[in-house]
Amino acid sequence: MEKAFEISLLSYGPMLQKHDIAYHERNNMLVHGTPGSSNAWILYLSVRTLDTVLLLENLLPLLKENNTPFSLIKNQLLQYQLNAGAFGEELVGKVITLYPKTTQDAVILAGQINALSSNYSGPVVPGAQRIGKILYAPNPEKLPFHIDAEYRHKTKRPAILGRYYVPVQMIRSSAKGDIYKGVNLKGCAFNWCLIKQGKPSALDDHFGRDMKDRLLWQREVLEDIAGNVPTPRFLDFFERRDHSYLVMEYAEGEPLGQKVTELLKGRTWLALNTEEKKQLLRWYLGALEIAGKVHQKGYVHRDISDMNFIILNDNRLCVIDFELSYSLSRQKPAVPFVLGTRGYMAPEQVQYAVPSVKEDVYSLGALLCFILTGKQPAEFIEAQPQKTRPKLQGLAGPGTLSNIVLKCLDPQREKRPEVKELREQVLNYYCLLN
Predict the structure, then answer these.
(1) Do 104 and 145 touch, CB atoms closer than 8 A?
(2) Burial of residue 47, with CB atoms counted within 10 A of its CB: 0-12 exposed, 13-18 middle, 19 or more buried
(3) Domain ranges in the chain?
(4) Exposed/middle/buried for residue 142 (C-beta within 10 Å: 0-12, 13-18, 19+)
(5) Bridge-partner residues for 234, per DSSP?
(6) Cα(66)–Cα(387) distance, rounded to whole angstroms?
(7) What mean pLDDT value characterizes the chain?
(8) Total-model pTM
């Protein structure tokens, strides 16, 4: 299987050894000294993965001289995962945690770190007060540190963004950026829009890209597929205070996953009546039709999931979130963006393979598994298909639909069916229901 790229990821233990700093391992961290409740303050350093080696070369002698206890993420792979929120949103950006012994030590150390880190950047640390370019502290009522005016502003919903867009409802807040439902005032439209924010340095990767690059790529894809794939139309892109914003039409409806859960009511396929089964399959056939249209336009979606299909108010489906998509015809992005929805990602996607439509087929199989069982694929699907089979057949029966799921989930992507074949099989099954 051809890989889209190869990268060599470093461990940080050898750097501590180089500076003669003793440490022990604790979960995902390398720990020096004995951090504990006796420490006066905790300070967090948030830094992009590509910049961390250079930062450590300057920082470690300072920490050693001050005998400051600290913890450091073990390696670059874990750092990418940490900054992407894989270990929890509350840990994003906490690449290095310092434990000064006294308040005076903390104040002095903060000044020293700010002096040597002015050229670095890192993702925003949720729930913490920024006191330097990459330095954060927990957010109590009073801080003993000098805080520049640019870091003092309160985090609150802006009254207007990009001159024309009024955010009125926070849909989701995350380390990579917030998502708002807003009103589009451009051209006196006064209609709903979706405002997707990219925070600075969020989802940084080994090729110097971050959330801004993902939003720009999504813009390019939306402009290319407009009118051919049912998806919200691109409206605008702009930047404000180091944040990037992508504005799209707002899809009035509910996520497919939510509608499926409401219909199942805790039941699985075998407990449903015929009309309920038909409704689930109508939704799934709609998802298959849309996936086919995405592929006809030369793209792999690469993030198909129950939350990335919206059932509109007229019961039609649309697809959202082309952030991870890949153009087969243009072989773009040259390096595909990584990550995706856990449980829906094909094995080769995790292994950085050159993208193929068979990645989407795997995801469509996981989606059908969710529809039949009501169980999230990440918690239900096993790495070995033979372990998934008895669980799936126990909830959905040993027939056609279970077999379709298992074929789609085949670890060897060349053995997975084409979307057209998949749709024909599901449609035939649907027509036989009575």
Answers:
(1) no
(2) buried
(3) 13-151, 165-249, 253-432
(4) exposed
(5) 248
(6) 53
(7) 93
(8) 0.90
- Residue 365: which residues within 8 A CB-CB, separation 6 or more? 404, 405, 406, 407, 408, 409, 416
What DSSP state is assigned to residue 332?
B
Question: Nearest-CA neighbor of 83 among 47, 118, 41?
Answer: 47
CB neighbour class for 24 (10 Å; exposed up to 12, middle 13-18, buried from 19): exposed
Burial track 168-199 (b if 16+ CB lie within 10 A, e otherwise): eeeeeeebbbbbbebbbeeeeeeeebbbbbbb
Task: Kindly list the distances between the CA atom of residue 6 and the CA atoms of 3, 202, 252, 327, 362, in Å, as whole numbers in the listed order.
Answer: 7, 22, 41, 20, 23
Cβ neighbours of 333 (radius 10 Å): 19
pLDDT surpasses 80 at 5? no
Cis peptide bond upstream of 140, omega within 30? no
Tell me which amino acid residue 395 is.
L
**Amino acid letter, residue 222:** L
3 contact partners, CB below 8 Å, separation of at least 6: 351, 352, 353, 354
Whether 13-151 shares its CATH topology with 165-249 is answered: no
Handedness of CA 55, 61, 66, 68 (dihedral sign): positive
Residues 151 and 134: beta-carbon distance below 8 Å = no
CATH class of 253-432: mainly alpha
Handedness of CA 14, 16, 21, 26 (dihedral sign): negative
What amino acid is encoded at 122 in this protein?
A: G
Query: Are the CB atoms for 167 and 195 separated by under 8 Å?
Result: yes
DSSP per position, 409-423: T-SSGGGSPPHHHHH
Residue type (1 letter), 165? Y
Tokens of 16: 């501590």
pLDDT, tens digit, for every residue of 253-299?
999 999 999 999 999 999 999 999 999 999 999 999 999 999 999 99
**What number does CATH give the domain 13-151?**
3.30.2430.10
Residue 218 tokens, joined: 């999504």
Let me know if 202 is exposed, middle or buried by CB neighbors in 10 A (0-12, 13-18, 19+).
buried
**Fold type of domain 165-249:** Phosphorylase Kinase; domain 1 (3.30.200)
